[in-house]
Design goal:
Elements (H helix, E strand, L loop, with lengths): L1 H7 L3 E4 L8 H10 L4 E3 L3 E2 H6 L2 H5 L8 E6 L3 H13 L4 E6 L4 H6 L9 H14 L4 E9 L4 H14 L4 E9 L6 H4 L7 H10 L5 E4 L5 H8 L4 E4 L1 H5 L7 H6 L8 H17 L4 H5 L12 H10 L9 H18 L1
Parallel strand pairs: 1-2, 1-9, 2-4, 3-4, 4-5, 5-6, 6-7, 7-8, 8-9
Helix pairs in contact: 5-7, 7-8, 14-17, 16-17
Length: about 325
C-alpha cells in the first residue's frame, strides 16, 4: 500500500483511530460514505489481542477494507504476536500507537510515553515486521512534555524507519503527559504542521502522513501537497457527510456523492443483522447522529436517534423513520 503510494505518487486519506468511537459499527458506516479512505480501529492493547475474544476484539466486516489495526503496547514480543494475529485475521495494516496520552496508556508506559523511548519503538517495529506480512506503521506526536520537537521527532523517525516501518503518521502536536486531559491534549498544544513538513523533506523517500486539527477535505488537499497522507479524526466523526466527497475529490471516482437514502438503507440492514445477533440499535446509530450536520432536518434526525433508538427494544425501522423526518427537507434543499 505505502510503497505503491510513494512509487506512483498516490496519496492516502485516512480516518483516524479514535478510542470508543472507531469500532466496527462506526467503520461500516464510514465505508458507506467513502470506498477509498483507509479506516483504523480504535487502539487495542496487545494483551487484549492475544488473550481476548477474537471476534469481539478483532472482528470486522469485509466491506471495511482497507482497514488497519492499531495496537498499544511496549513489549516487542507481545506487539509482534498481536501483529501476527491481526494480520492473520485479515487486517491490511498493523499500526503501533505512540501518540495516545490517556491515563490508561501512561499507567502501562506505552502510547505517547514511547516518544521518550525511540529505540524501544524501533525494537517493537522490527519485531512486528518479522511477525506480520502486511505493512507495519507508527502513529506518533511531534514530542511530549519538554522535549525539543526537532530532536524528538527526528530520532523517532530514524529508529522506526531503520527498523523497517512502512509509514509514519504524525499528529502535529505535542502531548503533555501531566497537566492536560486526553481531550485537552487534542486541543491545547498548538498545531505545528510545519514540523511535519520538515520531517517529510528530510525523509523524502519515506511515507509521512499528517494528522491533527484537519477540518475539511480542502484542508486535507492542502496538506497532501506537502506530505503523503492526510488523516482526519473528530471532524469526520461529528460531520461524517464530509467523507462523501473524498472518493471523487481525492481519488477521481465517478458517480458523485453517495445517496443519503442508500446509506440509510444499508445501515438499517446492517443494524437488523446486529440486532438479530443480540446487539442493540443504539450500538450502530450512536455513530450516525451527525450524518446530516448543518443540513435541514438535522436536529430532528439527532433527536430521534438520541431518544427512540436508545430504547432496549428499538428496531432498525426507527433509523428509517428518522431519515423520513428529514428527507423532505433534503429534497427541498436540492430543488
Amino acid at each position: 500500500m505505502y510503497h505503491k503510494s510513494l512509487k506512483n505518487k498516490e496519496k492516502i486519506f485516512a480516518i483516524a483511530p479514535m478510542m470508543d468511537w472507531t469500532n466496527r459499527h462506526c467503520r461500516f458506516f464510514h465505508r458507506q460514505l467513502t470506498r477509498h479512505a483507509l479506516l483504523y480501529t480504535e487502539m487495542v492493547v496487545a494483551d487484549a489481542v492475544i488473550h481476548g475474544d477474537r471476534e469481539r476484539v478483532l472482528g470486522f466486516d469485509e466491506i471495511e477494507h482497507p482497514v488497519a489495526l492499531q495496537i498499544g503496547g511496549n513489549e516487542p514480543r507481545k506487539v509482534a504476536e498481536a501483529a501476527r494475529i491481526g494480520a492473520a485475521c485479515g487486517y491490511d495494516e498493523i499500526n503501533l500507537n505512540v501518540g495516545c496520552p490517556s491515563d490508561r496508556v501512561q499507567s502501562g508506559t506505552f502510547g505517547a510515553c514511547l516518544m521518550k523511548a525511540p529505540e524501544l519503538v524501533g525494537d517493537c517495529v522490527a519485531a512486528m515486521k518479522a511477525a506480520a506480512a502486511v505493512p507495519v506503521t507508527v502513529k506518533c506526536r511531534i514530542g511530549v512534555d519538554d522535549q525539543d520537537t526537532e530532536e524528538a521527532l527526528d530520532r523517532l523517525a530514524e529508529c522506526v524507519f531503520s527498523a523497517g516501518a512502512d509509514a509514519l503518521w504524525v499528529h502535529a502536536r505535542k502531548a503533555w503527559l501531566q497537566g492536560l486531559s486526553p481531550r485537552e491534549n487534542r486541543e491545547v498544544p498548538p498545531l505545528d504542521y510545519a514540523r511535519v513538513y520538515r520531517l517529510k523533506k528530510k525523509y523524502s523517500h519515506k511515507f509521512i502522513g499528517i494528522n491533527g486539527g484537519i477540518q475539511s477535505i480542502d484542508e486535507a488537499v492542502n496538506h497532501l501537497g506537502r506530505v503523503d497522507g492526510a488523516m482526519v479524526g473528530r471532524a469526520a466523526y461529528h460531520a461524517p457527510m464530509m467523507l462523501a466527497g473524498v472518493d471523487s475529490r481525492l481519488f477521481g471516482a465517478a458517480g458523485g456523492k453517495p445517496d443519503p437514502a442508500t446509506v440509510i438503507e444499508a445501515m438499517a440492514d446492517y443494524a437488523e443483522r446486529h440486532i438479530e445477533a443480540g446487539g442493540r440499535l443504539s450500538h450502530v446509530t450512536r455513530h450516525m447522529v451527525g450524518l446530516f450536520h448543518g443540513q435541514p432536518g438535522a436536529r430532528r434526525f439527532r433527536q430521534i436517534l438520541s431518544t427512540r433508538a436508545t430504547r432496549p427494544d428499538a428496531g432498525a425501522q426507527i433509523l428509517r423513520e428518522a431519515f423520513s423526518a428529514v428527507a423532505e427537507d433534503l429534497r427541498g434543499e436540492a430543488a
